[in-house]
């Protein structure tokens, strides 16, 4: 991540790019040369630390990543007409998996990495385009540090895990549109049926790339991106409110798993959804502020009601202390 001081950007970028090249050498190119040059390492060896044993383990991971990479934006000429972009995605995701054995690679990470890489590879600055793979990798790493709990199964039920986030999303919906929340609950439409993908992949599969980039531009510019995402998802639900209230279980699941380009409320315009999210955030902030003011007033009232008994108690205590002092020291 770049520091706030722009004067430091060239040095930080240079060191990050060098580090990425080191990862490529140590995790991909170096082991490949070692296998080719080794005269004693047997491909059939079952030694734990042999170059070939590591290769066969890595091959499974590479194949898993490659399946998803080849399905990334297949209709976008930028990716499908130039295979070097797919190779960049594959390389970066493999390196991330090797550096993070606790998470490794999880299906869908390609959908998060690809838009970042696309933006940098199409930058007006030739240097940015040249180093798009290196810079995109560290952007992806920084982003994953914020959302990685959504990919850890052991944290699913924690507050920061995916189920905890889904619970927060439905709590927001309950507070802003209780009727819709109650309707979804009565139809047993579990938010996991659609929200797992919404939150884990940052809505990257719900919108076309231009709209997604507009959404991410707002998402990454706020101080609380997690809350912004949850609130935006609630706005999405309210945008198709009419359809959800009228539809049955099957119709609603189909609708939410393939978000429509329009609804009874109008076209699904990304700028409109963002504007409504901003309005919702303002409403929530004002309500929280009102709650804080009410709490302060209640505290003041409680203090005022208890001040007279307290004053009387202090007066009695003071009188007792003076009487005790007179008896002890013979004061008049």
Task: Write up what this structure looks like.
With 332 residues, the protein is mainly α. The protein is built from 15 helices and 2 strands. It has helices at residues 9-37, 51-69, 77-80, 83-99, 109-121, 126-130, 132-147, 162-176, 178-186, 192-200, 209-219, 225-239, 241-246, 249-257, 270-329; strands at 262-263, 266-267. A two-stranded antiparallel sheet has the order 1-2. α8 (162-176) packs across α9 (178-186), α8 (162-176) crosses α12 (225-239) and α12 packs across α15 (270-329). The protein is globular, with a radius of gyration of 29 Å. The termini are far apart.
Q: What's the topology here?
A:
Layout: H1 9-37, H2 51-69, H3 77-80, H4 83-99, H5 109-121, H6 126-130, H7 132-147, H8 162-176, H9 178-186, H10 192-200, H11 209-219, H12 225-239, H13 241-246, H14 249-257, E1 262-263, E2 266-267, H15 270-329
Antiparallel strand pairs: 1-2
Helix pairs in contact: 1-7, 2-4, 4-7, 5-7, 8-9, 8-10, 8-12, 12-15
